[in-house]
Amino acid sequence: MKQYPIAGVGAVVIYNSKVLLVQRGTQPYKGQWCIPGGKINFGETLQQAAEREIFEETGILIEAHEPVYTFDIIETGNSENPSRLPFHYVVTDLRAEYLSGDIQAGSDVLDAAWFGKEEVMRSDVQELTRNFLERWWIKGGPV
C-alpha cells in the first residue's frame, strides 16, 4: 500500500507582542509547546483550515493570511518495525491576525498560552518552533 504525506497547517498569531503557542497533547511533539494547527480537511483552503484549527485548539478567532514557513515532520519507525513511518506531515504555517477570544485549551492540547520573546527560548518549546520564531519574529530575518 502506497503512503503519502499528510498536509497540515499552523497559524503564527502575534498579539500584544506575544505569540500564541499550544502544548501538544498528541504525537508528534507531545508535551512540547508549538505553533497551533493541525490537518487540512479535504476542500479547505490553508486559511480556512488554520482558522478552524486555531479556534478548536485555543478558542481564539483569527484571520489567516499568507504562508511564512513550510517544513516536514518525518518520524521514523520503532525498534520492532524500523521501516515504518508513523508520521510524515508537510506543514505550512501562515501569518495570522488575532480577532477575538480568550484562551481555552481544546481537547487535543494540554494547554495554550501567549509567549513573549524571551519565553519562546525555553527548552520546552519545540526546536523547529523555537528556531523559526527566533529567525522570523525575534530577529526579524528571513526564514
Short description:
Helices cover 20% and strands 41% of the residues.
What does this molecule look like?
There is one protein chain. The chain has one domain (6-138): Nucleoside Triphosphate Pyrophosphohydrolase, CATH 3.90.79. Strand 1 and strand 2 (18-24) form a beta hairpin. It has helices spanning 46-58, 117-120, 127-138; strands spanning 6-15, 18-24, 33-34, 37-39, 61-75, 87-100, 109-115. Helices cover 20% and strands 41% of the residues. It is an alpha+beta fold and 143 residues long.
Number of helical segments?
3
Helix and strand pattern: EEEEHEEEHH
What is the SS-derived class? alpha+beta
Count of separate structural domains: 1
CATH topology (level 3) name: Nucleoside Triphosphate Pyrophosphohydrolase
CATH homologous superfamily heading: Nucleoside Triphosphate Pyrophosphohydrolase
What is the number of beta strands? 7
Shape: globular
- Estimate the strand proportion: 35-45%
Query: Based on the structure, what is the oligomeric state of the protein chains?
Result: single chain
User: In this structure, how is the largest beta sheet organized?
Assistant: 7 strands, mixed
